[in-house]
């Protein structure tokens, strides 16, 4: 089936829910206006639908290969990447002085959602370039920017994040790769790294690796890690490419999904590298990249969910079985059976909620940098920090869930690989794992983001939700209002409970036990809040006689679907949040082995 | 990692929760006693661990092939099947006069759980023989029993269920295969069938197909379908095999998982067949097989979940990352991190609940047939009917969920196929689809099972739950009791709501919209009820100074984990149950396409 990028919904969400007009109002994006927003999304849609989506299946079937220290991507991928770069898609949000288009991050994320939906394995390549760009913009020297940044922004080279080692995954403090100063300001980098996404390929002349490693005299643990830049080919002072550097891919992994994305084991054998930022502060420097990448992974979750939804909806319109209780038609399309309609309705509602969360996080990131006054920037930074783990974890869980529902809508055909639904189920499964597992996101949320400002960002969020809640009775009566009211109250209760627990040093296990359920609660309710905002906006448009009435009415119905099928989860989240670490401690390893 | 069949837990669940002693007390199983139960489970464990588990990965990697109208299973599978048959595993519950061991169904299901856990693709082959045996026992003529049944019971031949056609999946009434009388009492069967599990292979001399087809003068729709038996090789009056019959596999499907199970497209081209049962009543005859198969598929869900759980637990004990908040150990095994412990604890609780539901359904099926008085048989039949869709749907959803959690526990390694966790995630995904999708199960539950006896079976269940609830304060105080009380109340409310809605012919869409959430609610609460029964039994054992104290204490903790992490879901199920069909009707296709 043909992928159609959800351009109208992306534009609506950016405007009505995420509030991109506030970003425009900062004046930091001189070229940006609503027309440009539409043009960028249309062009992204055209590329994603026309070039990337048709390669999705061949990428899955052929995957990439690693022979003699060189990776060959799946057929068509390298050529598609070069078209992508030529179209300027790697420089949307980069600074103008590096050749970028200096557009809002939020718009870039929306454009990339179409890329990930069309071809998630492909999208990883530019996604990691964007993270590299962000790290160099923040921590690179002028010379590094001059040499590497412009090439990354133009897409002539790609970037890779090089963190994980076999013994150092979630715990990067355990990594052992080393970088020894040569004496001329450069370093020799040695070690083996795993799970290096697009660590090698033949789509570009050069590849820039951002690598975490230890200096010879570095302290043990996370405070002895530095960030280095090394490139596949050495770059001369005049920017020309020299000889191949001393690192290469050892193999590509045989994975459950995203076969089109080469996941490399990389060996660095005295590779010439440069320090980026300050010695022993690599982990905090890398966090700049990781936070951007985490939000981008959330958008992957939205993209794959959108794709799976479209695929399932198309099948449900074509596939005919049995009599519809609504239409009375025999041999009716299965979309006219309530249980299938329910599945599709919940899928659509969750996709819309996840999209709104991710794009709102993007707007928060834009405003954290560009809001006119310091207080506003601080407030938006707090929102961005609070939302990033939710955007990553909640949206990628939605990706897996919706992809699985998509398989289910297909019935037996869903299990047959040729149908295509199974690929989304396989591809989607990586997103809750990489860039920090969703468990790590939850710990980041409760351990750092929730309390870094004494809980102020969470309180601001609750206040914003209550503002929406106050308007809701204009639009709905009864349960759709009650459910949101209960949900906001649950967020408030859970937040207070957690802040209390965090204040007691002995309750560390209680906090960590609650983390996942708290993140899910916040995601569920934030998603509902955003769909409520969308519904209110739609109502205002309808009242003003603007827009497509049926489409806008759909937004009003969508919140009701979400309220009935998702917001009801809040009480189960509360039970889980409050269970306490002591209970799990009693579930000892002996009991687990049982 | 090595699979260990959960023999102790299977025996405990059969006794403490499912109540297999009541089955023994009927006197219908002369050879059965508690010692035999232990011996059967130990022997099943030995075979599953020693022969089947080691073939699981090769089955996934090599799959089966179809060349020139013959299917070759994955390496080792045919030989393993012959060992399996020689061990008597295809005749555990069959009648003694057919060569069976006449043991309780519930025990057979427990033994087969170890088979499915060890190698789900393999287990499908004998599972379908068992369903064929049950159909022939019920509807076969003496001659058919003589010719076919004994060979199926001995495992010398295997059986296959042949229902689906491309246009006839959930709606079997749409099938078009035909059977034309030849005049000598046999029929010529013509048509194409899809999704025929183990429809062809080389493990046995012959294969018996139970095929749904239409007689020439049959009415249209579901009331014109008859059940036929046809075999790969014709069988002479003396039981010797004759020439190959006119049907063959056209291809095997390329599937997401269970690669070791050949899923055949079958062509019947005038195959000689016999009628089974009465003309035009094939669908109801086939339901005998389907109900047995549905429960068996539920057990597959339990098996794959158990396997995924064990795999994840072993990894979590080996893999070391970061400092444990409990032990203070740095580089601690990840099982000592609360979020991983939570995942594993919830996995274990859900596996135990699903196991208890399936084995209790098996006991109900045994008692429905063999309880001493008519009233008791009727009551147990009602329980079996009510539980079958729950056992199938809830347990297979648990299979997918636990397999996905297992991938998550592995972090990045979970996405690498060599690790093995990904195979369970792929294999598990079929179980919510085949033998009637879980949506079909939910419709069966609310459309037929709930009201066939005016709701009496549901009321009986609620009464049984309340009996357990009354005992719970002996063991727990506070939330573990409250949560179950709320949960039982929710079941009661939802059941009354549904019975009311069903009484109103105009509310058909409301009922169908509620179906999935009602099944999930009933599954969640029934699972909790069973873990509560297990905890009470464990407490009694402890009080009597019997058994392994630590293991029994674990059962008491497990209910608490389930109560905190699952029973809290009830309120969200209620919101979904009550949403009404009108809301989904407003989510029209236009809105969905958006």
From TrEMBL, chains A, B:
Domain of life per record: Bacteria
GO molecular function terms noted in the UniProt entry: flavin adenine dinucleotide binding; oxidoreductase activity, acting on the CH-CH group of donors
Pinpoint the Acyl-CoA oxidase/dehydrogenase middle domain residues: 160-267
Pfam short name (any one): Acyl-CoA_dh_N
- Per the record's keyword annotation, is Chaperone included, yes or no? no
What the entry lists under InterPro entries is as follows: Acyl-CoA_dh-like_C_dom (IPR025878), Acyl-CoA_Oxase/DH_mid-dom (IPR006091), Acyl-CoA_Oxase/DH_mid-dom_sf (IPR046373), AcylCo_DH-like_C (IPR036250), AcylCo_DH/oxidase_C (IPR009075), AcylCoA_DH/ox_N (IPR013786), AcylCoA_DH/ox_N_sf (IPR037069), AcylCoA_DH/oxidase_NM_dom_sf (IPR009100)
Cofactor(s), names only, from the UniProt record: FAD
Q: Where is the Acyl-CoA dehydrogenase/oxidase C-terminal domain?
A: 280-445
Domain Acyl-CoA dehydrogenase/oxidase N-terminal stretches:
78-156
Acetyl-CoA dehydrogenase-like C-terminal domain residues: 462-585
Question: What is stated as this protein's family in its record?
Answer: Belongs to the acyl-CoA dehydrogenase family.
The name under which this protein is listed is Acyl-CoA dehydrogenase
Question: What species is given as this protein's source?
Answer: Brevundimonas lenta
Q: What is the lineage of its organism?
A: Bacteria, Pseudomonadati, Pseudomonadota, Alphaproteobacteria, Caulobacterales
